Amino acid sequence: MTANEFIKKIFFIEILKGLALTFKHMVTPAVTRQYPTEKREPFQGSRGLHALVRNPATGREKCVGCGLCAAMCPSQCIHIYTSEDESHKKVVDQYEIEVLRCVFCALCVDACPYGAVVLTPHFEYSGYTRDEFYYTKERLLENWDKFMAGDNGETYLEKFWRPKSADFGIPAIPQAEEKIKQ
Ligand code: SF4
Ligand code: SF4
Q1: Four-way CATH pick for 50-164: 3.50.50.60, 3.10.20.30, 3.40.930.10, 3.30.70.3270
Q2: 3-state helix, strand, coil in the chain (%, to 5)
Q3: pLDDT > 60? residue 74
Q4: Secondary structure class of 27 (helix, strand, coil)
Q5: Are 85 and 116 in contact (CB under 8 A)?
Q6: Nearest ligand 2 atom, CA 68
């Protein structure tokens, strides 16, 4: 046992530290918020209601119906139905999320190679029927317009959606470059 440990033991330093913390909290005002009269601003990156990203160029969903999000979803609550148009291009006919089964893990967001599905900061929603929580493609696109309009969507994808093309670049390793030159 070191001298430091011995001093700590005989003067009960750890116990005194614990008691000091307890007393500090006894005199600190409570931080409980009186929801819903007092609300905290929702922040970007919080895992609220889903949205499908609207492509500004086409006005349609960015989703291409690859199904990776549905394959990755642990709750199996994403349902995608696709067909082929005249030019043999895949068309997303239906994209549906059963929000009541969702665990808000955001794996669908991570799995999507196109940044086409996001979780918005909106969390205050309720309903009386299960149908109200069955989000169709149109409702998911409306969520994008309502909660991720303007810079919100871009900021979200920039901050929270990975990997991007740039992430696949080969990192510069100075030592390795030196060796190649030699
Ligand atoms: S957040 Fe998780 S559980 Fe919910 S739809 Fe996405 S992958 Fe499924
Ligand atoms: S949201 Fe993304 S991962 Fe899911 S089907 Fe559409 S493109 Fe594929």
Answers
A1: 3.30.70.3270
A2: 40, 15, 45
A3: yes
A4: helix
A5: no
A6: 3
Per the CB < 8 A criterion, the answer to whether 13 and 101 are in contact is no
| 80-108 residue pLDDT tens | 999 999 999 999 999 999 999 999 999 99
Nearest CA to ligand 2 atom 6: 63
Q: Dihedral sign, CA of 75, 78, 54, 116?
A: positive
Kindly state the helix (H) or strand (E) to which residue 123 belongs, with its residue range.
Answer: none
Q: How far apart are CA 137 and CA 121, in angstroms?
A: 19
Domain boundaries, given as residue ranges, for the chain? 50-164
- Residue with CA nearest ligand 1 atom 8: 73
63 lines ligand 2 (CB under 6 A): yes
